[in-house]
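User: What would this chain look like folded?
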Amino acid sequence: MSSREAEIILIRGADVLTMAAGEEIRPSRADVLIESGRITGLGADLAVPAGAEIVEAAGRLVMPGLVNAHLHSSEMFLRGRYERLPLEMWLCWSYPFFGLEPPDLELLRLRSLLVAMESLRSGVTMISDDFFDPPAHHLARLGTVFSAYDEAGIRANVSSGLMNRPYLDTLAYGREVFPARVQAQLDFPLTGADEYTTFCEAVFRTLHNSGDGRLRYMLAPSGPQRCTVELMQACRDLARQWQVPYHTHVLETRTQAVTADKLFGGSIVRYMHEHGLLNPNVLMAHAVWITDEDIALMADAGVSVSWNILANLKLGSGLAPVRRLLNAGINVALGTDGASSNDTLRLFDVLRAAALVSSATAKGPMAGLSSGEVLHAATLGGAQAAMLAETTGSLEVGKQADLIILDLSHGTAFTPLSDVVNQLVYCENGSSVESVMVDGCFVIRDGSFTRLDEAGILSEMRARMPAFLRQHQTTEAMNSFLIPLFQEVIARCDRVPVAAERYLPS
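Assistant: Here's the prediction, encoded as structure tokens.
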């Protein structure tokens, strides 16, 4: 679907923050010329081409759209439902083992539209959706997600995530703590590497590069402890063949660090290295419980990391060593994670938290991330992690026009106007976003969606949510007996020393 209202658009007289590599991270007064979706001119007082639509942007800030490097659309209907749970216990209800009834295709469409709408409204033009849809993989269901994102006009990498090892074999002390009858219940039939590869090849033939090239498929084996080597290597090979990310969760929690010691005799990162699973296609979500040796291997391989600070804080997972990652030359992006582990998809919230929390270190605030570093992670760093740095993430001639326009006079975020870059990170929450353009098309203009009936979609969703949540409450009850078992696993892991300590100061 394409809805360019004019082939040539000139955004005139704006303060433009390009975020281009090697340029100072400061806005300057400029015009932006867009032709057939691509930026063809950038500078002061550009000539107006014949037939151009002129967008007057005095008093506005034009900058690249933000890139959300890691989210799970599967959680979108569970926002605000849980608190004070570590990951392993939280998973029992947000990704239940028993009684799960996947949403029908219309609910799946509505859920995906809600992801796109919240993202776009808060200035995000590109998302990496680690879509997880157990118990099986269906082209029609994945195609519904692609279709919804096309309908909204957003840019997205979308996976069909998978784990294919018995769950209790992916968890330290799982076989010791869980009774035999429960173990038998949790040992579900699993998808093999050949079956998954066949499915992925079908996706690449039918859905990949749809939506005028905005929508791509990515490989997403859930985590090295959760997948067989054969599956991970098959995904690695497909990622290389199609030049898409290999998106995986790495060392999110302390329990996972203990699990790595028990399963692999040491680091998951070294395990990946030994099996040829580290390369520039790899996007690691979290990377909290990593060591200096891990960082060296990651830097040598050229991997990217999605720092999901708010989800890590809410689930008590710990703090990734982001300053050391950056000092090693590792590309860092920012992600919200899902709307059940974070509760919003507003990436501006993540920017502020990233800057603030990075300053709360043993070495003091001067070791924290600067506003420029945070903005880079949210734009060009995210684009690099998505393997789209040549397409999006900065405003440069030749790139696609993925940009946002902020009204600097809206509300109080920029009043008084002291330092735009600092205020973007510390003051803005997305409410100043006035217009959003993806691939040269306005998907939000002057505060209104151009492709979507926002009120109608929300009304339909609200009508269906009571029944959905009643069913989910029943599912929660069916899985509640697992909570104390996982609590015991975590308690045992907490008594085991690990190579990295990542807890917040008490």
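The chain has two domains: 8-63+404-449, 66-385. If you want, I can go into more detail on any region.
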